[in-house]
Write a structure and sequence with these properties.
Layout (H helix, E strand, L loop, with lengths): L11 E4 H17 L5 H13 L5 E4 L4 H9 L3 H17 L5
Antiparallel strand pairs: 1-2
Helix pairs in contact: 1-2, 1-3, 1-4, 2-4
Bound molecules: zinc ion (ZN).
Length: 97
């Protein structure tokens, strides 16, 4: 059935900010005292992501994080500030049931 498929390297489309946000998300949510349920966690991520210009990179499996990290390495301060603001916002405006 898959005779038409070629063995091409699997490429991954990664939003640089998303990978960075994911790294700091849980620690900042805890620090800010935001609700840690799945809905609020996702809301914090969405709010934080929306505050950034989308910046995508195409990578192959294995090099995904290193390249993305490299590209975003100067933005750690921006990321943590954005996630902190987002967590504070969601804490005040929780959308969970
Ligand atoms: Zn919640």
């Amino acid at each position: 059935m898959d005779t038409m498929q070629k063995q091409e390297p699997k490429l991954i489309l990664t939003n640089v900010a998303e990978g960075m946000i994911e790294q700091y998300l849980d620690a900042i949510i805890t620090k800010v005292g935001c609700c840690e349920c799945a809905r609020c966690r996702m809301d914090v991520k969405a709010v934080a992501l929306n505050s950034f210009k989308s910046q995508y990179v195409v990578t192959e499996p294995g090099e995904a994080m290193s390249k993305a990290m490299l590209a975003a390495s100067q933005k750690v301060a921006d990321i943590t500030i954005a996630v902190t603001k987002a967590a504070m916002f969601v804490k005040e405006h929780p959308r969970h049931r």
